[in-house]
Amino acid sequence: MIGEIDAIRTVMILYYVLMVFSLGLWVIRDARTRGSKQPYTWALVSVFTPIGLPYYLYKRYRNVGLEKRETTRRVDRVLATWASASLGAFLLAAVLTPPDPFSQIRVMLIVFLVFLPGAYLLVYRGKYRMLQQSIQI
Known about the structure:
The protein has one domain (2-135). It is mainly alpha-helical and 137 residues long. The protein starts with a helix and ends with a helix. It has 6 helices and no strands. The chain has helices spanning 2-33, 39-48, 52-62, 74-96, 101-124, 127-135. The chain crosses the membrane at residues 7-28, 40-58, 79-97, 103-123. Keywords: Membrane, Transmembrane, Transmembrane helix.
């Protein structure tokens, strides 16, 4: 029992660290390519406050002072894919499961494996643009 608890704790910590790292690094790189003077501040606010990431994405979408200057590189697409799949799985598992780490980590990992191919298609391959055009956002 103790070994299983330690394993679950380790997996949850590793998952959370990778999620925060990929999300923060993506925000830093994205804000930097859009000419922001404070990419590290954007990353800290996006990762550690509940309203930070939605606000950054809103400003990014509306291009308020964040016009893109360079093309997207492979590293940026990998980071965005991993961050979106892991964040989506983390949030969905938090909503669908009781506050029990055993069930939450199991659901989170399963949902992550389901979300990763979708994130690959939408984010890495850029199919969200086609989706945006088809529903006219």
